Structures are given as structure tokens and as C-alpha cells.
């Protein structure tokens, strides 16, 4: 025996499932399965391997949308880049790909042959190549900044960024702001695109913001080095003058690393970050006293999570796949095991 209904949110579905299970009494066993012809399911059916995902990330970067590292793992930065790329093409911005979109990005991310690379350079009049050849052996960071301003998505942009980083580390007197490109800051990005946000009380010091909001500002109580927030401290994010959330922990080159505690009006959560993304076991405490805990992988929920009511009497198992809730199993109602 079963029932099927649609809800606007997973929370609504879970609460309805608990009520239905209570009405049936203990010992019946309840399973809530999440189905739908949604974008995550379409992409899942494509069975993308890691090499293909890496090509897609390179394609996004070639198109001017930064996915973070081209590591073949689709975390929040890659999903944000996909959404922005989809939006630029006038298609539905979901952050998940269908087959034609995969092929379009793979073709952009495919390695160029020497012949095609030379043809592209010739078509552009060789201007970029000549410019690069004129600065590639320079020890002045300003030369590489000039290249990146003129060719932000150029063939040699990664090399230019690497040279900037190396020169900044070797030359403490170099301008620290040179380590954050103007087109990577929130001031130079479209609304909602992941970016480097300038700390309001520390001009020239930046922290990575994966989900910027209109009118958002941030303060930082810790140190800054090389134009990026460093060490332990507290970030306070505000929106339109009101505090959104306080988060405390350690930053490495402006990105979250190590154990962090996040607090806002909806409750709190705590767990580890690795290179700016949630990875490992997290505990979420909602304002109503309910809790959830389980693993994050590359910034999204993945695997088995456990939801508990505030009084501990109701317990559910929630199974996630790449941030999408796939199945909820009611384990306990009113203190009684219903499995």
C-alpha cells in the first residue's frame, strides 16, 4: 500500500510523511521516495565520467565562466558556472546539464591541436601571442595584470595568474591587490556569480563568496595577507544593513579551511571545509530544535543523513546524491521504531 503526492519542498514532503506514518501506527514501515523528471536526474542518466567532467570544466573556463579547479568534481563553483553559462545562452538556469549542453561544453574544452591553435592566433591577428611574448619573462607583476585585463580569458591567462602568484610570494613589496584580478571581484561579476568580495572595513582585502547576494557586505576580525583574509576569525555577512549570519573559523588565502561554525536566524551548522567547500561530517541545528547531520562531498550533501525532531522522538534517514534528496525512510515515530 502506498500514496503519492507532490510538494514544493523536501521539508513539506517529510512532515507529510511523518503525519501519514503516525496515522498508520507503529510497525508499518514508511519509505518516501523522491522522483521527478528534473535536471539532476537527466544529468545523472548521462553517466558522465571524471574525464568528461574535467573537459566540461575546461569548456566553462574557455567560455568565460570560472568553475574553480578543473578536477572533474562538480562542486558549488562548477554548478554556479553552469547556471551562469546556461543563462547566457537563454536556456533554463538549473546548474545541471543535458546531452546537447554537455557536447557544447566538451567541444570548447577539447585540447586544441597546434594547427588549430595557430589558426586561431592568426585569425586574431596574433595580437595576444605578441603581447604574451613581450611580457612572459618579465619580473614586474603589472605586466601580467595588463595582459589579464586585456585578455581575461586568453590562452595564457592561467600562466599569467601563476606568474602573478609567484612574483607576489617572492616580492613582498608588490601590490597585494594584484593577486585578485579585477574581473574576479564581486564588483566585476554578474549578480549571483561566485566571486572575491572586498571586506568592508579592510579595503584591498578579499574573501571568497560562493553565493553573493545583492547589497551584501562582509567584515572580518582576523588578519589579511597578500590581499586575502588569512588565519582564524569571524566573518559577519550583512544584507541591506541587517546581519545575515556570523561564521567563525580559519581562512587560507581567503577560502574556508578547517572547522567552521555558521549561525543565522534559521539556526546553526558546523563542520569542516576543505579548499572553500564543505567536505566531511556536518551537524545542522534548526531554530525549531530539529537537527540533521551527515556528510558533505565537494560542497553538497551526499550519502546518508539523519533527521531528528527537537524532542528526539521522531527520526528519519535521508539519502542524498550530489545535493539532491533521493529517498527518506522514517525510522522512528513518537519514540517507537517503525522500521
Please, could you describe this protein's structure?
The chain is an alpha+beta fold and 339 residues long. The protein has a domain at 40-111: Muramoyl-pentapeptide Carboxypeptidase, domain 1 (Orthogonal Bundle). Helices cover 30% and strands 31% of the residues. The chain contains nine helices and 17 strands. The strands form two sheets. The chain has a 15-stranded antiparallel beta sheet that branches. A two-stranded antiparallel sheet has the order 2-3. A hairpin with a 2-residue loop joins strand 7 (242-252) and strand 8 (255-264). The chain is globular, with a radius of gyration of 24 Å. It starts with 9 loop residues before the first helix and ends with a strand.
Write the layout of secondary structure elements.
Blueprint: H1 10-24, E1 30-33, H2 39-45, H3 50-62, H4 76-88, H5 99-109, H6 114-123, H7 127-135, H8 141-150, H9 157-170, E2 195-198, E3 206-209, E4 216-220, E5 223-225, E6 228-239, E7 242-252, E8 255-264, E9 267-274, E10 277-278, E11 280-286, E12 291-297, E13 300-301, E14 303-308, E15 315-321, E16 324-333, E17 336-337
Antiparallel strand pairs: 1-16, 2-3, 4-6, 5-6, 6-7, 7-8, 8-9, 9-10, 9-11, 11-12, 12-13, 12-14, 14-15, 15-16, 16-17
Helix pairs in contact: 3-5, 8-9
Helix percentage: 25-40%
- Named CATH topology of the domain at 40-111: Muramoyl-pentapeptide Carboxypeptidase, domain 1
CATH class of the domain at 40-111: Mainly Alpha
Largest sheet: 15 strands, antiparallel
Count of discrete alpha- or pi-helical segments spanning 4 or more residues: 9
Task: Catalogue the unreliable spans.
Answer: 34-38, 113-118, 120-125, 168-178
As a whole number of angstroms, the C-alpha radius of gyration is 24 Å
Span of the ends, CA to CA? 15 Å
List SSEs in N-to-C order: HEHHHHHHHHEEEEEEEEEEEEEEEE
Query: Which overall shape is indicated by the principal axes computed on the Cα atoms?
Result: globular
Strand content: 25-35%
Query: How many β-strands, per DSSP?
Result: 17
Query: Overall pLDDT, averaged?
Result: 77
Annotated CATH architecture of the domain at 40-111: Orthogonal Bundle
Based on secondary structure, the structural category is alpha+beta
